[in-house]
Amino acid sequence: MNVILFGPPGAGKGTQAKFLVNQLNNFQISTGDMLRDEIQKNSEIGKKIVEDMSEGRFVSDEIVNSLIENVVFDSKKKNKLIFDGYPRSLTQAKNLEKLLDKTNQKIDFVFFLNVNKETIIKRIEQRKSIENRSDDDLNTIVKRYDKYMETTKPVLDFYSKNSNFYELDGSSKIEEITAKINSFLNV
Ligand code: AMP
Fold first, then answer.
1. Best CA proximity match to 92, nearest among 112, 113, 66
2. Quick one: 15 exposed, middle or buried, by C-beta within 10 A (0-12, 13-18, 19+)?
3. Three-state secondary structure along 93-147?
4. Which of 11, 21, 47, 173 is the most buried (most CB within 10 A)?
5. In angstroms, rounded to a whole number, what is the distance separating the alpha carbons of residues 85 and 64?
6. pLDDT tens string 112-154
7. How far is the CA of 60 from the centre of ligand 1 (A)?
8. CATH of the domain at 26
9. What average pLDDT does the structure give for the chain?
10. Which residues contact 6 (CB under 8 A, 6 or more apart)?
11. What would the 3-class secondary structure string for 5-19 be?
């Protein structure tokens, strides 16, 4: 089963992705983690993206799409993909469709975790003190949220017309969201 978890930074996508990974024996595909990895390794990609990441700007579609291509073509991960933080633009969404088509796969569920800006800011501030992520200062948080909302509206429109799209209240308790997701997945 392939699932997209969609929603602004801090909506709880990562948390729900980890539950799904355990439950379904799937793989969490977090472009944020993949990009942070590239920075850690100081790779060519890492050097190109470090500024965008720390400023809270989106990394180019070209770079993110190239990282995702390897994942979708990995036969071990076929039909076991939990997307967390991808796609974030219409170009990325269309790229994903194309890659899935080529590998005979599809997206089974799209869950939109909808949360307002105030809740997000509170949550990310808490996470900052736990994980110490450098892109998590308040200014960056607000930029990331606004950029997310602006850029992802077309992505939301792209997915929301399909019958496999579910909008959830992302400000509910973690376990309530998990239970809702499970009820839709029928697990
Ligand atoms: P995340 O861990 O998903 O909150 O992502 C952290 C940062 O990584 C974002 O603020 C962007 O700079 C970058 N990023 C992650 N995923 C994407 C994506 N799909 N497209 C563009 N930039 C991304």
1. 66
2. middle
3. HHHHHHHHHHCCCCCCEEEEEECCHHHHHHHHHHHHHHHCCCCCCHHHHHHHHHH
4. 11
5. 11
6. 999 998 888 887 778 777 777 666 677 887 888 888 888 898 9
7. 10
8. 3.40.50.300
9. 92
10. 13, 110, 111, 112, 113, 152, 155, 156, 159
11. EECCCCCCHHHHHHH
* Number of domains composing the chain: 1
| Cβ(7) – ligand 1 distance below 6 Å | no
Q: What are the two backbone dihedrals, phi and then psi, of residue 76, each rounded to the nearest 5 degrees?
A: -65, -25
36 lines ligand 1 (CB under 6 A): no
Q: Give the pLDDT of residue 2.
A: 98
**Does 170 sit in the ligand 1 pocket, CB within 6 Å?**
no
Which residue minimizes the CA distance to atom 2 of ligand 1?
Answer: 32
**Quick count: other Cβ atoms within 10 Å of Cβ 131?**
9
